[in-house]
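Hi R.,

Here's the input for the zinc ion complex you asked about:
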Amino acid sequence: EKVAIHTASKNYPVYIGSDIMHLLSSCLEEYTKIMLITDETVSKLHLGTLIEQLPNLIVYTTPSGEKAKTFKIYEDCLSFALKNGLDRKSVILAFGGGAVGDLAGFVAATYMRGIPFIQIPTTILAHDSAVGGKVAINHPLGKNMVGAFYQPEMVIYDTNFLHSLPERQVRSGFAEVIKHGLIADPAFLQELMENLSSLNHLDNIQLAKYLKKGIEIKSSFVSKDEKETGIRAYLNFGHTLGHAIEAKAGFGELTHGESVMCGMVYALILSKHLLGLTFDIQSFINWIEKLDYKWRIPSSMEFNTLYELMKRDKKSTSGKPAFVLLEEIGKPTMFEVEKSLLEDTFYKLSE
Ligand code: NAD
Ligand code: ZN
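And here is the predicted structure with zinc ion in place:
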């Protein structure tokens, strides 16, 4: 399966399927050197299969998770690239989840003012992060505060790598697939709700189909608005509250996607109040409970703390928190919401 991504700055293919890594070797001949960036977890689980096919890889391994996205690691990657003699005709491969993709993409965007890079995502969440061209590292004062818009040469998404993902990572990534259905495609959402009753044991064919659809939806928003001035912001559905919850959660308590799921339920309820959304929210909640999502806001979180965080969200322009809301499934719109309604809705959803 293949999705063609079109943006103002570049067109590139996303290949999705099982056993498709052979597509990679044929594309690498034109490059002088190949540097692969991966993390410790992915390296242990899956690097062997890649090295068999590509014995000439120069491998840099980062710590797993957000620890990959620091200035220190970023600098270290650049030093490693320089010492290994990468030039402007070399390529960087990002082999891992969204964290490795963001780091490797930013290294590629800035090394010698930009060299080619290829995404080989290994998480479900990366169907989102590997498409769209946002790459970044974190600043001590804020997540993703240092970055660029930089598109890869291609994305090779082999579903075989996904079977080693821990259940929580599957749940985290799949929340974004569901988000893509909610903001853009009622038929896709309905298909998911009818056919998916558990996130365990997803087979390769199902996975590839759902991820492909998610990528098509994401890229349709991005291709119309590469640098996020308008409709790309709709991809932030569920993220105004989601980011606030994620920021307040203790380490390991809630993943990104789990937080976004709470945020999506919240935004659905606001949509019903403010825009008369007719979607059956209770059925949606019953379904996500079957998938083991928690959708209630954790009792440890206070409204005022979350409210302050929501006001700081970058979609907000007037000081009131801005939300992506739905007129209908597949019809998002931006809305600034009054504090009183946010507070009432918060108490409905709080544990
Ligand atoms: P991640 O890269 O941190 O991966 C999550 C965990 O799963 C890590 O511990 C990793 O080692 C492990 N892992 C990865 N692949 C595995 C596999 N196949 N089997 C077992 N374990 C595996 O995070 P993520 O959830 O993929 O992505 C989150 C990151 O993506 C965040 O840094 C976020 O800011 C970024 N992001 C970027 C964009 C974008 O548009 N650039 C969009 C969304 C998220
Ligand atoms: Zn997200």
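One thing worth noting: DSSP finds 13 helices and eleven strands in the chain.

Cheers,
M.
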